[in-house]
Amino acid sequence: QGQPVASGGGSVQAGGSLRLSCAASGYTDSSFFMGWFRQAPGKQREGVAAIDSDGNTSYGDSVKGRFTISKDDDKTTLYLQMDSLKPEDTAMYYCAAVLSLRSTIVYWLKRVPFGYWGQGTQVTVSS
Fold it and tell me: Do 81 and 67 touch, CB atoms closer than 8 A?
């Protein structure tokens, strides 16, 4: 299995939108759930959103109501739709695959994110 790789980042003004994608073909079975986390310079990793194999979703408090996590029907691609972006959303964003036995999606978002991830994608929001 290759590590999940995020793409789709860029620079946008506050209030704008971006959609991130993640190639996750090696993690489509129920042994894993998928999540997005971000890391800004000098800050700890922060869980953003997660989705399990049944399609249940959970979000970090700072992005609730603004971000939407989803996956395509064959579960090989994960998405993060980011609306109403704020300067504080500026960070490197990563998608991660997490063994379902190790955590629930809710618990994963409450702690420093762990799992398998590859290259991230930079999101920069200007005021």
Answer: yes
Q: What is the pLDDT of residues 100-121, one digit of tens each?
A: 898 999 999 999 999 999 999 9
Pair 120, 91: CB distance under 8 Å: no
Both ends of the chain: CA-CA distance in Å?
Answer: 39
Indicate whether 80 pLDDT > 70.
yes
Buried b (16+ CB within 10 A) or exposed e, 6-18: beebeebeeeeeb
Tens of pLDDT, residue by residue over 3-35, are 899 999 999 999 999 999 999 888 888 899 999
Side-chain half-sphere exposure of 9, counting CA atoms within 13 A: 19
User: Quick count: other Cβ atoms within 10 Å of Cβ 49?
Assistant: 26
- Torsion of Cα atoms, 114 then 116 then 122 then 126, to 10°: -30
* Two structure tokens written together for 4: 């999940």
Query: CA 18, 15, 61, 57 torsion: positive or negative?
Result: negative
